[in-house]
Amino acid sequence: MRRVFEDDKVYEAVFNKERLHADSRHILLCYKVERRLRKLTEDIKEKGINKYWFAPRARLLIWALSCQRILNDKEHLETVADEDGHSLVISANYSGYLSELATLKVAPILAELMADKEYAARIADDKLGFLRTDAAFDKCMKLPTTNTNGFGRDWSDTCRIEASLGGLEI
Fold first, then answer.
1. DSSP β-bridge partners for residue 52
2. CA–CA separation, 32 and 78 (whole Å)
3. Contact residues for 125 (Cβ-Cβ < 8 A; gap 6+)
4. Would you say residue 114 lies in a domain?
């Protein structure tokens, strides 16, 4: 946190006008994803313990992809924000929505990322640090599965998660 206030470039990136005028309901929706992250990770892992064994080590990527999907869901975003974006309480409906999103939308993207030949050697050596990188997030956003699952490829008209996965920024 200290770095944000000591480095002008970082400060400008964190406190730019776009972020300062973001819809607080949308931020709260992503905050709630983080609060349910352990459950979402377990849901993905339970979907296929052998296929998604790595899910606990991809928690931040799951968070980023889940938030990205929520923010790009033009059909439901405002409804969800109206229902669940005003309180810190995580309703049963929102919890179910997140669980469904994780297992039906995020999990296939993670599986496709793990099947990528670029990461085969790292996976074989159990070096999964790449799951915490911007490059992995960007690769996920470019996968064909991502496009068909409603994550949106054109980030110009949506709120794109800046996935410095050490600390999610919106």
1. none
2. 16
3. none
4. yes
